[in-house]
Design goal:
40% of the residues lie in helices and 19% in strands. By secondary structure, it is of the alpha+beta class.
């Protein structure tokens, strides 16, 4: 059972089934955040040189071309085309820039009528057309700029929400080297149901990676509830099994709360992997799997699947046939000091190529590590899997995707990641 999928629909849930769209890679964690700020900012970046806007150059060149064509040729009566200049400016310039081009267009038209007049194409009707078109262009520019500001404001709110849920993790946090990438199936999405965190404490460092069923702010709210519980229980509880039980209880409580509010998303569940790094166990790790894809161990010797029997997703423990209401068991597994734990959400495992073949990241990882053992480092590993996922599905993902890698930081005298 996969989070990020509805219980009935086979497609991603976001109010209705939607077709996958071209993904946008948003590196997180140790990697540089490279997301764009939307169409408005992307347009401004494209129309700038060394940080300075050159958007004004296009309507200016159009105005110069119209003027030169009117003066030097008699083939066309084009001076009335100056009405196009404010329209072009309204699409790419600010309000004041558009107003300036309105003044320039009107000035050029008047000069054509009074200074270099050589045809009977000018006159009051044409002037009225240019002035009226300029006023409309200024209004259109004001509406466009206002809409862009509101859109960027909403994106800032969404980014703040995402940073609150997926808080920035310091380098070496909790004695762990870590990295993550986030691949959004929706090119305009800023938040989703994927989540991860690291929580150091007196009983060791705990890691949580998961995926809430569904999309939208409801999924973000659920992820925030689980992460809040993890940050407290992961710090205070000495037993990882107790942390797992606290997460299960929190999911049930949150689901009951949303159902009590009469919301249609009150039946959410979440898949997750809970990991415990104990200070007294340098060659082992404790793992609890809540219906999630088990982690892989990647080291200089290659890739191996960890033998973990996954339990039911968070919020569904009452369906367990053995112990209804109980969290999945804790598995203690061997993990070498130079091995990295790789965790992915179902956007990776369910990525398909045009022929419908699923992506197998272990194959790419094994080849990369065989060629260079340094590719087992978290930062390189998440980049490798992120690139491989996009390459396999031709940049078209059916679900939001998180790739998270973590390992113990090398001790004194041990090699780093190069």
């Amino acid at each position: 059972m996969r989070a990020g999928r509805g219980r009935v629909s086979l497609g991603p849930v976001r109010g209705r089934v939607r077709r996958p769209v071209r993904a946008r890679w948003r590196p997180l964690g140790r990697l540089v955040h490279a997301a764009g700020q939307g169409d408005a900012v992307s347009r401004h970046e494209l129309l700038s040189v060394r940080g300075r806007s050159v958007a004004w150059l296009f309507p200016l060149l159009l105005l110069v071309g119209i003027t030169a064509g009117d003066i030097t040729t008699g083939a066309f009566e084009i001076i009335s085309w100056t009405v196009l200049v404010p329209g072009v400016a309204a699409a790419i310039c600010g309000v004041w820039g558009t107003a300036a081009f309105v003044v320039l267009a009107v000035t050029v038209y008047i000069m054509a009528d009074t200074v270099w007049q050589h045809r009977n194409e000018t006159g009051l009707p044409g002037l009225v057309l240019v002035v009226l078109g300029g006023l409309i262009a200024v209004v259109a520019a004001a509406l466009r700029v206002g809409g862009e500001r509101r859109m960027l404001h909403m994106r800032d709110i969404a980014d703040t929400t995402r940073r609150t849920v997926l808080r920035p993790l310091p380098v070496g946090f909790g004695g762990l080297d870590h990295a993550a990438v986030y691949l959004s199936a929706d090119s305009e999405a800023r938040v989703g149901g994927d989540f991860y965190d690291i929580q150091p404490g007196p009983h060791g460092t705990r890691v949580l990676v998961g995926d809430v069923q569904g999309k939208g702010l409801g999924a973000v709210e659920t992820a925030a509830a689980l992460l809040g519980t993890f940050r407290e229980a992961g710090y205070h509880e000495p037993d990882l099994a107790t942390v797992a039980e606290r997460l299960e209880v929190r999911m049930v409580r949150h689901r009951a709360h949303t159902a009590g509010l009469g919301r249609s998303d009150g039946d959410r569940f979440a898949t997750a992997v809970l990991i415990g790094f104990s200070p007294g166990l340098p060659d082992a790790v404790d793992v609890v799997v809540f219906g999630h894809e088990p982690p892989m161990a990647v080291g200089p010797g290659g890739v191996r699947d960890l033998p973990v029997a996954g339990g039911l997703p968070l919020g569904m423990a009452e369906l367990s046939p053995g112990r209804p209401g109980a969290a999945p068991p804790v598995h203690r597994l061997r993990l070498a000091a130079d091995e990295t734990l790789l965790l992915v959400t179902d956007g990776v495992t369910e990525a398909r190529d045009p022929a419908g073949v699923f992506y197998r990241p272990a194959d790419d990882i094994a080849r990369a590590v065989a060629a260079d053992a340094r590719n087992a480092a978290p930062a390189r590993l998440v980049s490798l899997v992120g690139d491989g996922t996009l390459r396999h599905c031709r940049g078209r993902l059916a679900d939001d995707t998180t790739v998270f890698a973590v390992r113990r930081t090398p001790g004194p005298g041990e090699p780093g990641d190069g």
